[in-house]
Design brief:
Blueprint: H1 21-40, H2 47-58, E1 62-63, H3 64-71, H4 75-87, E2 91-95, E3 103-107, H5 109-130, H6 137-152
Antiparallel strand pairs: 1-3, 2-3
Length: about 160
């Protein structure tokens, strides 16, 4: 800091290793999201749309409620995203065989192809993250992040 009270940059002061873990995780999340936004911008896909497409491709027949839980988005946000993906013919809806009011989501061929293009871009961001870790550190960080999600989510 060059003057008293100046706001530190990322990685400095309380925004660095001496900061609160929760804040540092939010800071990291914001940086990752920003990098993903840049990487996906020319494909006209947002990180939340990428997350939804990822889950729909990986879990065919997923419901909107399940999508909201897995993507950490509100049901209202999921409804808007799904509506836009259906309109763009990237996702299709079908009624559940048993509970007709539940809509099941499936990626179209066009949606799966777009996800593949997006995934390549996102993997470049992931590679930039991996470059920050030694080979031995990565599994430790992955286990720790998964444990945080498990312990603090109320599911673990």
């Amino acid at each position: 800091m060059n003057r008293k009270g100046a706001i530190p940059g990322p990685g400095e002061g309380k925004r660095g290793a001496e900061g609160h873990l929760g804040y540092l995780m939010r800071q990291a999340h914001a940086a990752v999201r920003g990098a993903m936004e840049k990487a996906l911008a020319d494909l006209d896909v947002t990180p939340p749309q990428f997350a939804v497409l990822t889950m729909v491709v990986n879990y065919p027949g997923i419901s909107g409620a399940e999508l909201a839980r897995l993507t950490f988005l509100t049901p209202q946000t999921i409804n808007v995203i799904v509506r836009n993906l259906v309109r763009a013919e990237l996702v299709a809806k079908s009624a559940d065989a048993v509970h007709g009011r539940i809509l099941r989501l499936h990626a179209t061929d066009q949606g799966a192809a777009l996800l593949k293009r997006c995934r390549g871009r996102v993997m470049e961001v992931e590679e930039r993250l991996r470059e920050l870790l030694d080979r031995e550190e990565e599994p430790v960080v992955r286990r720790w992040l998964a444990a945080v999600g498990n312990k603090l989510s109320g599911e673990g």
